[in-house]
Amino acid sequence: MLQEPLNRAIHVARWVALAVVVGVISGVLSAGFIESLTWATNTRNDNTWLLLLLPLSGLLVGASYHYLGRGLERGSNLLIDEIHTHSEWVPLRLAPLVFITSVVSHLAGGSTGREGAALQIAAGATDPISKRLGLDPADRALMLITAIAGGFGSIAGVPIAGAVFALEVQRIGRVRYEALVPALVASFVGNAVVRGLGVHYTKYPHIIDVKWSPTIAWQVALFGLLAGIIALVFVRLTLFIRGAMKKYVAWSPARPLIGGVLLAILIGVCGWRDYQGFSFPLMLEAMNGATTGHFEVKLFLTALTIGTGFVGGEVIPLLATGAMAGAMFANLIGANVAVFAIVGSVAVLAGAANTPLACTFIGIELFGGNGAILFALACVAAYAASGHTGIYHAQKIVAHKSGEAIT
């Protein structure tokens, strides 16, 4: 009579222990990654001539993947693929490869992020543990979801959103609740480790308390739809650039080399240095009421950076794109610029990543609970408008009539 509860308790305890290990590893690696990218950003800002090294950095990134990481260029999509197919183990070398090439991409000034890279670093460091433990495919999939949660929660400072993101991102239309406990544990532990090591996260402004009304409802819903379209444009443009590069440039290391040349020319000639890297200053200015940034520039440079083969991720660049788009929209309709910049940041990300629940929690954790209903409305609208095409093309779509996953 007591055997079943006892077995269940042992099962939960086992997964909590594994999740703690994953969280500690993810937190330590994320702390080092954050500090390294901060150094790269500060060094680039202090030495503007590094822009000239964008072509060389692109060649280095491309050659690293060509000779040391064949098959690993799928990035975060590799992790999602392995959750579903279990066709190959994520190699340990993925962690240092992504870590180093992301720092190189930021040092020279590509428009890229860090969250996608952090997921890969965490999975690259922990999937070999699954292999050593001899986990079966189902348990190994849960470990990968746990690694995604640990990586996202620790790199972004959003432990609840990190767990929800991991549960939501691998399937469109289904949340993997069986991984809830290990995902939450890994995400919270990873976040605690980063903070415990004295690494500081970016401080975002808190959203003001907005009085709910029919006017704000339709304004937020309308902008959510526009945010979904912006997300779709970004995804389509990135895919177009990546496809054109594969079609016309046979040697893969030459693709980010060409991308580096184009980026260096555009940034130098057009004076777009503020759009390099994360573009935190532009994003924070929008969230504080400024309308000086141009979302279309950030969108284009990020698509060019990622599409030609640079490494890092799209999350923070999409937050910046959404913030500037929200500021512009609010300025046009005479609404509060800061409020729509904050809402816009998570809405565009929700449309691009197909993760409206996670992005709602990102908004709450980063900007405060006062905006919860605004975040939810905008993220759902953006998700609806963007369709199922997203930055993670390995996501499965659940057919609601049959409950079976289809590609």
Structure report:
This protein is mainly α. The protein folds into 2 domains: 3-196, Clc chloride channel, CATH 1.10.3080.10; 214-396, Orthogonal Bundle (Clc chloride channel). 71% of the residues lie in helices and 2% in strands. The protein has helices at 3-46, 54-68, 76-85, 94-108, 115-133, 137-156, 159-169, 180-196, 214-248, 254-270, 280-287, 295-308, 315-333, 337-353, 356-367, 372-386, and strands at residues 171-172, 396-398, 405-406. A 3-stranded mixed β-sheet has the order 1-2-3. A hairpin with a 6-residue loop joins β2 (396-398) and β3 (405-406). It is globular.
List its traits.
2 domains; mainly alpha; Clc chloride channel; disordered C terminus; globular; three-stranded mixed sheet; 407 residues; 2% strand
Concise structural overview:
Helix content is 71%, strand content 2%. The protein has 407 residues and is mainly alpha-helical.
Architecture blueprint of SSEs:
Elements: H1 3-46, H2 54-68, H3 76-85, H4 94-108, H5 115-133, H6 137-156, H7 159-169, E1 171-172, H8 180-196, H9 214-248, H10 254-270, H11 280-287, H12 295-308, H13 315-333, H14 337-353, H15 356-367, H16 372-386, E2 396-398, E3 405-406
Parallel strand pairs: 1-2
Antiparallel strand pairs: 2-3
End-to-end gap: 43 Å
Structural class: mainly alpha
Q: What is the CATH architecture assignment of the largest domain?
A: Orthogonal Bundle
Overall radius of gyration: 20 Å
- What is the averaged pLDDT score? 94
